[in-house]
């Protein structure tokens, strides 16, 4: 059985869940998800901005010879 309801936290962190379906004395698991009362929205970050911020270190010809570096094919002198 699943009981799902919204409630308000009372003083001292007290949360009450009341439902006629809940049998007295039953052991239950309670998961509390607190909704943010003041959500902050940040500007979306593009893939290119994320990629630039990674600060990867590698050979300058990565984009041209990525298969050689990935699979080890071709001329190792290019590395």
Question: What does this entry look like structurally?
Answer:
- By secondary structure, this protein is mostly helical.
- Helix content is 22%, strand content 0%.
- The protein is built from 2 helices and no strands.
- The termini are far apart.
- The model has no long low-confidence stretch (mean pLDDT 84).
Can I get a quick summary?
The chain is mainly alpha-helical and 79 residues long. It has two helices and no strands.
Q: Report the sheet with the most strands, covering strand number, pairing sense and barrel closure.
A: none
Strand proportion: under 5%
Assign a percent range to the helix content: 10-25%
Which class best fits the helix and strand makeup? mainly alpha
> Quick one: overall form?
elongated
Number of strands: 0
Which blocks of ≥5 consecutive residues have pLDDT under 50?
A: none
CA gyration radius, whole angstroms: 28 Å
Note the gap between the termini: 61 Å
Give the count of helical stretches: 2
Index terms:
mainly alpha; 2 helices; 79 residues; single chain
In terms of topology, how is this protein built?
Blueprint: H1 47-53, H2 62-71
